[in-house]
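Hi all, posting the design record for the shared folder.

TITLE: backbone redesign
STEP: 1 of 1
STRUCTURE INPUT:
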């Protein structure tokens, strides 16, 4: 799980007086700690020694992370290198107005790193992604898309499908790369942006 971060603050409000007090958030209070519990089944799917290490919230590397791998947040200039650490990217988003206006950056990043992606069938992810399953069979497409009404089952089903068929994951990654490599190449994007600037400054 990439982007793990324990920074932040919490505002505590006294229910009697209404007074507010701000303090540093505790690592175990962060949303990242909650995500980690989900991915490790509340730490039951990993050895006890590794659980003890994780609960220290140390950023020092652990000598054996073959189970679940916590990856701390990285600077914006280098975080994309984390794509080399996994085979399938998960991109779930809730269906509301803010998310429908987001960019498809996760799709583009996964594509340039040739990673398969399982994504919510919502807004930005529908621009470049085409569902690659029909009646349980692999067909023409470059991703696995989860419809909102199927969140309860299809995420797990699609993850299992790619775990059991690693060549499908590789093929999806290659297909996604072919989708994004020309459209979102920096040279193409820069040239298009320059033309727009020239047009509006005339």
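Okay, here is what came back for every position:
SEQUENCE:
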């Amino acid at each position: 799980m990439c982007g793990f971060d324990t920074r932040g603050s919490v505002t505590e409000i006294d229910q009697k007086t209404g007074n507010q007090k701000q303090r540093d958030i505790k690592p175990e209070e962060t949303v990242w700690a909650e995500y980690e519990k989900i991915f490790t089944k509340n730490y039951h799917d990993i050895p006890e020694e590794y659980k003890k290490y994780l609960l220290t919230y140390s950023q020092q590397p652990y000598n054996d992370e073959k189970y679940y791998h916590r990856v701390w947040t990285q600077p914006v200039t280098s975080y994309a290198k984390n794509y080399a650490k996994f085979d399938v990217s998960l991109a779930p988003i809730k269906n509301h107005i803010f998310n429908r206006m987001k960019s498809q950056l996760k799709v583009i990043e996964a594509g340039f790193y040739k990673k398969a992606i399982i994504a919510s069938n919502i807004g930005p992810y529908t621009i470049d992604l085409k569902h690659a399953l029909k009646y349980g069979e692999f067909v023409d497409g470059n991703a696995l898309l989860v419809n909102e009404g199927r969140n309860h089952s299809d995420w797990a089903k699609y993850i299992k499908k790619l775990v059991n068929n690693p060549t499908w994951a590789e093929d999806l990654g290659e297909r996604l790369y072919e989708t994004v490599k020309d459209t979102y190449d920096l040279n193409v994007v820069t040239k298009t942006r320059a033309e727009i600037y020239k047009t509006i400054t005339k």
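COMMENT: The two ends are 47 Å apart (CA to CA).
Let me know if anyone wants the other runs.
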